[in-house]
Fold these 3 entries.
Entry 1:
Amino acid sequence: MRKHVQNYVAHLHSRPAHHRRRFSMQAAGIITLAVFLVWLSTLGVRIATSGTSAPLPDSAGSAAALLAGDAALPAELQSGAAAVQDAADQSAPASSDTYPN
Protein backbone atom coordinates (compact mmCIF):
# COMPACT_ATOMS: atom_id res chain seq x y z
CA MET A 1 0.00 0.00 0.00
CA ARG A 2 2.75 2.43 0.96
CA LYS A 3 4.66 1.71 -2.22
CA HIS A 4 1.52 2.28 -4.26
CA VAL A 5 0.96 5.69 -2.63
CA GLN A 6 4.59 6.67 -3.18
CA ASN A 7 4.35 5.69 -6.85
CA TYR A 8 1.14 7.68 -7.26
CA VAL A 9 2.68 10.77 -5.64
CA ALA A 10 5.69 10.46 -7.93
CA HIS A 11 3.27 10.16 -10.86
CA LEU A 12 1.45 13.32 -9.71
CA HIS A 13 4.72 15.24 -9.56
CA SER A 14 5.31 14.45 -13.21
CA ARG A 15 1.88 15.82 -14.20
CA PRO A 16 1.22 19.48 -15.11
CA ALA A 17 0.27 21.94 -12.37
CA HIS A 18 -3.41 22.09 -13.33
CA HIS A 19 -3.69 18.30 -12.90
CA ARG A 20 -2.10 18.51 -9.45
CA ARG A 21 -4.45 21.34 -8.45
CA ARG A 22 -7.46 19.38 -9.69
CA PHE A 23 -6.36 16.32 -7.70
CA SER A 24 -5.82 18.39 -4.53
CA MET A 25 -9.26 20.02 -4.86
CA GLN A 26 -10.90 16.62 -5.39
CA ALA A 27 -9.11 15.15 -2.38
CA ALA A 28 -10.07 18.14 -0.21
CA GLY A 29 -13.67 17.85 -1.40
CA ILE A 30 -13.84 14.15 -0.57
CA ILE A 31 -12.39 14.71 2.90
CA THR A 32 -14.80 17.61 3.53
CA LEU A 33 -17.72 15.51 2.35
CA ALA A 34 -16.71 12.67 4.66
CA VAL A 35 -16.50 15.01 7.67
CA PHE A 36 -19.88 16.55 6.76
CA LEU A 37 -21.51 13.12 6.47
CA VAL A 38 -20.17 12.07 9.88
CA TRP A 39 -21.45 15.34 11.39
CA LEU A 40 -24.83 14.91 9.70
CA SER A 41 -25.17 11.31 10.87
CA THR A 42 -24.65 12.34 14.51
CA LEU A 43 -26.86 15.43 14.33
CA GLY A 44 -30.10 13.51 14.91
CA VAL A 45 -28.71 11.89 18.04
CA ARG A 46 -27.50 15.21 19.43
CA ILE A 47 -30.81 16.96 18.74
CA ALA A 48 -32.83 14.13 20.29
CA THR A 49 -30.81 14.20 23.51
CA SER A 50 -30.28 17.95 23.80
CA GLY A 51 -33.59 18.54 25.60
CA THR A 52 -32.73 16.13 28.40
CA SER A 53 -29.35 17.56 29.34
CA ALA A 54 -30.55 20.51 31.45
CA PRO A 55 -33.90 21.28 33.04
CA LEU A 56 -35.76 24.38 31.96
CA PRO A 57 -35.81 27.19 34.53
CA ASP A 58 -39.04 27.85 36.36
CA SER A 59 -40.89 31.08 35.73
CA ALA A 60 -39.88 32.58 39.10
CA GLY A 61 -36.20 32.40 38.16
CA SER A 62 -36.54 33.46 34.55
CA ALA A 63 -34.56 36.38 33.21
CA ALA A 64 -37.71 38.34 32.39
CA ALA A 65 -39.04 37.97 35.93
CA LEU A 66 -35.67 39.00 37.40
CA LEU A 67 -35.43 42.05 35.15
CA ALA A 68 -38.99 43.09 35.95
CA GLY A 69 -38.26 42.78 39.66
CA ASP A 70 -41.01 40.19 40.13
CA ALA A 71 -38.63 37.51 41.44
CA ALA A 72 -35.80 37.44 43.93
CA LEU A 73 -32.33 36.20 43.07
CA PRO A 74 -31.35 32.81 44.47
CA ALA A 75 -29.03 33.01 47.50
CA GLU A 76 -25.89 32.00 45.58
CA LEU A 77 -26.52 34.70 42.98
CA GLN A 78 -27.25 37.32 45.62
CA SER A 79 -23.87 36.75 47.30
CA GLY A 80 -22.09 36.83 43.92
CA ALA A 81 -23.90 40.00 42.87
CA ALA A 82 -23.01 41.65 46.17
CA ALA A 83 -19.35 40.73 45.71
CA VAL A 84 -19.31 42.18 42.19
CA GLN A 85 -20.99 45.39 43.38
CA ASP A 86 -18.48 45.74 46.26
CA ALA A 87 -15.56 45.31 43.86
CA ALA A 88 -17.05 47.89 41.49
CA ASP A 89 -17.57 50.37 44.33
CA GLN A 90 -13.97 49.99 45.50
CA SER A 91 -12.47 50.44 42.03
CA ALA A 92 -14.68 53.35 40.97
CA PRO A 93 -13.03 56.78 41.29
CA ALA A 94 -14.67 59.47 43.38
CA SER A 95 -16.75 61.96 41.41
CA SER A 96 -14.26 64.78 42.10
CA ASP A 97 -11.45 62.62 40.65
CA THR A 98 -13.34 62.01 37.42
CA TYR A 99 -14.28 65.59 36.52
CA PRO A 100 -12.11 68.27 38.11
CA ASN A 101 -13.76 71.65 38.75
Entry 2:
Amino acid sequence: MVLAGPFKEWKIISRERQKSLFTLTYDYDLNGGNIHEVKEITIELGKRLFRSHSTFTKGGQPAAGLEVAVGITPTAAKPKPALTQAKGGWPAGKPSTKKGAAPA
Protein backbone atom coordinates (compact mmCIF):
# COMPACT_ATOMS: atom_id res chain seq x y z
CA MET A 1 0.00 0.00 0.00
CA VAL A 2 1.22 3.49 -0.86
CA LEU A 3 0.17 6.30 1.48
CA ALA A 4 -0.38 9.85 0.30
CA GLY A 5 2.45 12.14 1.26
CA PRO A 6 2.42 15.92 1.08
CA PHE A 7 0.89 17.40 -2.04
CA LYS A 8 3.28 18.71 -4.72
CA GLU A 9 1.13 21.54 -6.08
CA TRP A 10 -2.10 23.37 -5.28
CA LYS A 11 -4.39 25.58 -7.32
CA ILE A 12 -7.47 27.60 -6.35
CA ILE A 13 -10.14 27.08 -9.01
CA SER A 14 -12.84 29.29 -7.49
CA ARG A 15 -13.22 31.23 -4.27
CA GLU A 16 -16.65 32.54 -3.42
CA ARG A 17 -18.44 33.44 -0.20
CA GLN A 18 -20.50 30.23 -0.12
CA LYS A 19 -18.11 27.77 -1.79
CA SER A 20 -14.42 27.24 -2.54
CA LEU A 21 -12.96 24.78 -5.05
CA PHE A 22 -9.27 23.88 -5.25
CA THR A 23 -7.01 21.08 -6.46
CA LEU A 24 -4.09 19.28 -4.85
CA THR A 25 -1.58 17.31 -6.93
CA TYR A 26 0.29 14.22 -5.70
CA ASP A 27 2.89 11.92 -7.30
CA TYR A 28 3.44 8.33 -6.19
CA ASP A 29 6.06 5.74 -7.08
CA LEU A 30 4.30 2.37 -7.43
CA ASN A 31 6.40 -0.63 -8.47
CA GLY A 32 8.76 1.57 -10.48
CA GLY A 33 5.93 3.46 -12.20
CA ASN A 34 4.81 7.02 -11.52
CA ILE A 35 1.17 7.53 -10.55
CA HIS A 36 -0.14 11.10 -10.74
CA GLU A 37 -3.23 12.14 -8.73
CA VAL A 38 -5.21 15.35 -9.05
CA LYS A 39 -7.62 15.74 -6.14
CA GLU A 40 -10.41 18.29 -6.54
CA ILE A 41 -11.88 19.49 -3.22
CA THR A 42 -15.05 21.50 -2.76
CA ILE A 43 -15.80 23.18 0.59
CA GLU A 44 -19.22 24.76 1.13
CA LEU A 45 -20.22 27.16 3.90
CA GLY A 46 -22.52 25.54 6.47
CA LYS A 47 -21.69 21.93 5.52
CA ARG A 48 -19.80 19.65 7.88
CA LEU A 49 -18.25 17.54 5.12
CA PHE A 50 -16.38 18.41 1.94
CA ARG A 51 -16.51 16.82 -1.51
CA SER A 52 -13.38 15.21 -2.89
CA HIS A 53 -12.87 13.76 -6.39
CA SER A 54 -9.56 12.21 -7.47
CA THR A 55 -8.27 11.43 -10.96
CA PHE A 56 -5.32 9.01 -11.23
CA THR A 57 -3.09 8.77 -14.29
CA LYS A 58 -0.03 6.73 -15.26
CA GLY A 59 2.11 7.99 -18.13
CA GLY A 60 -0.53 10.62 -18.94
CA GLN A 61 -3.28 8.00 -19.40
CA PRO A 62 -6.05 6.95 -16.97
CA ALA A 63 -4.63 4.45 -14.47
CA ALA A 64 -6.97 1.55 -15.31
CA GLY A 65 -7.19 -1.22 -12.73
CA LEU A 66 -5.54 0.83 -9.98
CA GLU A 67 -6.80 -0.25 -6.55
CA VAL A 68 -7.56 2.74 -4.33
CA ALA A 69 -8.50 2.83 -0.63
CA VAL A 70 -9.99 5.79 1.20
CA GLY A 71 -10.07 6.26 4.97
CA ILE A 72 -10.00 8.60 7.92
CA THR A 73 -7.28 8.49 10.54
CA PRO A 74 -8.28 9.51 14.09
CA THR A 75 -5.88 11.53 16.19
CA ALA A 76 -5.16 11.08 19.89
CA ALA A 77 -4.95 14.81 20.57
CA LYS A 78 -7.67 17.30 19.76
CA PRO A 79 -6.49 19.11 16.60
CA LYS A 80 -6.29 22.89 16.60
CA PRO A 81 -7.36 24.76 13.44
CA ALA A 82 -4.59 26.55 11.57
CA LEU A 83 -7.05 29.11 10.22
CA THR A 84 -9.98 30.61 12.09
CA GLN A 85 -12.51 33.31 11.34
CA ALA A 86 -10.92 35.47 14.05
CA LYS A 87 -7.62 35.29 12.13
CA GLY A 88 -9.43 36.08 8.84
CA GLY A 89 -8.42 32.78 7.31
CA TRP A 90 -11.46 30.96 5.94
CA PRO A 91 -10.82 29.38 2.49
CA ALA A 92 -13.70 31.43 1.01
CA GLY A 93 -12.20 34.73 2.18
CA LYS A 94 -13.48 37.28 4.66
CA PRO A 95 -17.26 37.67 4.67
CA SER A 96 -18.40 41.11 3.57
CA THR A 97 -20.86 43.18 5.57
CA LYS A 98 -22.41 44.45 2.33
CA LYS A 99 -25.32 42.44 0.95
CA GLY A 100 -24.36 40.67 -2.30
CA ALA A 101 -20.69 41.69 -2.08
CA ALA A 102 -17.92 39.27 -2.98
CA PRO A 103 -15.47 38.09 -0.28
CA ALA A 104 -12.27 40.03 0.28
Entry 3:
Amino acid sequence: MVKLLHTFKDKEYLYLDLECIRGVTLTQLLISNQTLATPFLGLVAAQLVLILESLHAQGIIYRDVKSSNMIVNSTGQVTLVDLGEAKQITLDGLITP
Protein backbone atom coordinates (compact mmCIF):
# COMPACT_ATOMS: atom_id res chain seq x y z
CA MET A 1 0.00 0.00 0.00
CA VAL A 2 1.08 3.54 -0.59
CA LYS A 3 2.43 5.08 2.63
CA LEU A 4 1.13 8.23 4.25
CA LEU A 5 4.18 10.30 5.23
CA HIS A 6 2.68 13.49 6.69
CA THR A 7 -0.56 15.40 6.99
CA PHE A 8 -1.13 19.11 7.41
CA LYS A 9 -3.96 21.55 6.93
CA ASP A 10 -4.75 25.17 6.39
CA LYS A 11 -8.03 27.00 6.87
CA GLU A 12 -9.62 25.31 3.86
CA TYR A 13 -7.87 22.05 3.04
CA LEU A 14 -6.36 18.92 4.51
CA TYR A 15 -3.17 17.87 2.73
CA LEU A 16 -1.83 14.32 2.56
CA ASP A 17 1.84 13.79 1.78
CA LEU A 18 2.11 10.33 0.20
CA GLU A 19 5.22 8.44 -0.84
CA CYS A 20 6.16 8.61 -4.50
CA ILE A 21 5.69 5.23 -6.18
CA ARG A 22 7.81 4.60 -9.25
CA GLY A 23 6.45 2.10 -11.71
CA VAL A 24 3.52 1.49 -14.01
CA THR A 25 0.04 0.21 -13.45
CA LEU A 26 -0.73 -3.41 -14.19
CA THR A 27 -3.10 -2.10 -16.89
CA GLN A 28 -0.22 -0.26 -18.58
CA LEU A 29 1.89 -3.43 -18.46
CA LEU A 30 -0.90 -5.43 -20.08
CA ILE A 31 -1.37 -2.83 -22.83
CA SER A 32 2.33 -2.52 -23.62
CA ASN A 33 3.13 -6.25 -23.46
CA GLN A 34 -0.26 -7.68 -24.52
CA THR A 35 0.60 -10.83 -22.57
CA LEU A 36 2.39 -11.41 -19.27
CA ALA A 37 4.26 -14.50 -18.11
CA THR A 38 2.40 -16.85 -15.77
CA PRO A 39 5.13 -16.76 -13.06
CA PHE A 40 4.98 -12.95 -13.03
CA LEU A 41 1.18 -12.97 -12.72
CA GLY A 42 1.47 -15.50 -9.89
CA LEU A 43 3.83 -13.13 -8.08
CA VAL A 44 1.40 -10.24 -8.57
CA ALA A 45 -1.53 -12.33 -7.33
CA ALA A 46 0.40 -13.52 -4.26
CA GLN A 47 1.37 -9.96 -3.35
CA LEU A 48 -2.22 -8.79 -3.79
CA VAL A 49 -3.46 -11.53 -1.44
CA LEU A 50 -0.89 -10.50 1.20
CA ILE A 51 -1.86 -6.83 0.87
CA LEU A 52 -5.57 -7.60 1.20
CA GLU A 53 -4.95 -9.93 4.17
CA SER A 54 -3.02 -7.13 5.88
CA LEU A 55 -5.83 -4.66 5.28
CA HIS A 56 -8.47 -7.11 6.53
CA ALA A 57 -6.41 -7.78 9.67
CA GLN A 58 -6.63 -4.03 10.33
CA GLY A 59 -10.39 -4.03 9.79
CA ILE A 60 -10.24 -2.37 6.36
CA ILE A 61 -12.14 -3.51 3.28
CA TYR A 62 -10.59 -2.41 -0.01
CA ARG A 63 -13.45 -2.17 -2.51
CA ASP A 64 -11.69 -1.10 -5.70
CA VAL A 65 -9.42 -3.97 -6.74
CA LYS A 66 -8.50 -3.51 -10.39
CA SER A 67 -5.36 -3.52 -12.48
CA SER A 68 -5.24 0.27 -12.77
CA ASN A 69 -4.92 0.51 -8.95
CA MET A 70 -1.85 -1.73 -8.79
CA ILE A 71 1.54 -0.11 -9.40
CA VAL A 72 4.31 -2.52 -10.34
CA ASN A 73 7.91 -1.34 -9.95
CA SER A 74 10.97 -2.50 -11.88
CA THR A 75 11.56 -5.42 -9.49
CA GLY A 76 7.96 -6.65 -9.69
CA GLN A 77 6.86 -5.32 -6.31
CA VAL A 78 3.17 -4.39 -6.25
CA THR A 79 1.80 -1.35 -4.44
CA LEU A 80 -1.95 -0.90 -4.04
CA VAL A 81 -3.11 2.70 -4.57
CA ASP A 82 -6.38 4.67 -4.49
CA LEU A 83 -7.88 3.86 -1.12
CA GLY A 84 -10.82 6.18 -1.74
CA GLU A 85 -13.30 3.29 -1.74
CA ALA A 86 -11.79 1.53 1.29
CA LYS A 87 -14.01 1.22 4.34
CA GLN A 88 -13.29 0.56 8.01
CA ILE A 89 -15.19 -2.26 9.70
CA THR A 90 -16.25 -1.69 13.29
CA LEU A 91 -15.86 -4.35 15.99
CA ASP A 92 -19.51 -5.37 15.54
CA GLY A 93 -18.94 -5.98 11.81
CA LEU A 94 -20.60 -2.82 10.51
CA ILE A 95 -19.01 -0.83 7.73
CA THR A 96 -18.41 2.82 8.54
CA PRO A 97 -19.81 5.37 6.08
